[in-house]
Write a structure and sequence with these properties.
Layout (H helix, E strand, L loop, with lengths): L6 H13 L8 E5 L5 E6 L8 E5 L5 E5 L2 E5 L11 H9 L3 E8 L2 E9 L15 E5 L7 E4 L5
Antiparallel strand pairs: 1-2, 2-3, 3-4, 4-5, 6-7, 6-8, 8-9
Length: 151
């Protein structure tokens, strides 16, 4: 199906394979969609996790997502004000960053990728939330914080 990918998607796929060959050793699925985009879903290696790292080239942009967080880029390697997609992927699969998401019951209230030292201990930054979920690639930083919401 690689012949059906757009030029942009072929480039993203090649750059991803060159930059992250070890991720291909993990459980993954490659999807080449009807819109001729490249998408790879890689299961986090934590045995207790059902979370996937997803890199998608739909719409001629690169979207990187993990758990309840995602970011959009013009390409995989380019530098932008907030870094590159490559840097985001490296942070996600590293051991010092995790996705911190705020919830009110089952309603998502926001997410951020934070370093371990910046993890919240309460809902001060998002007082509407009654739960904070922290999810990491390796599972070593995963935990939940129950909070009393302030409306």
């Amino acid at each position: 199906m690689n012949g059906n990918l757009t030029e942009f998607s072929r480039e993203v796929k090649a750059q991803f394979f060159e930059s992250f060959p070890l991720l291909l050793n993990l459980e993954h699925k490659i999807i080449e969609s009807e819109e001729n985009a490249f998408c790879i879903e890689i299961k986090a290696p934590s045995s207790k996790s059902e979370v996937y790292l997803v890199i998608d080239s739909s719409g001629e942009e690169v979207t990187v997502s993990f758990d309840s967080y995602h970011a959009h880029y013009n390409d995989l390697l380019g530098q932008y004000v907030y870094g590159s997609a490559l840097e985001l992927i490296n942070r996600i699969i590293g051991s010092e960053f995790a996705i911190v998401s705020y919830w009110r019951d089952e309603q998502w209230c926001g997410s951020a990728l934070l370093e371990r030292e910046s993890f919240p201990i309460n809902n001060e930054n998002n007082p509407y939330a009654n739960k904070i979920k922290i999810r990491s690639w390796l599972g070593n930083l995963d935990f939940n914080i129950e909070c009393v919401p302030r409306d």
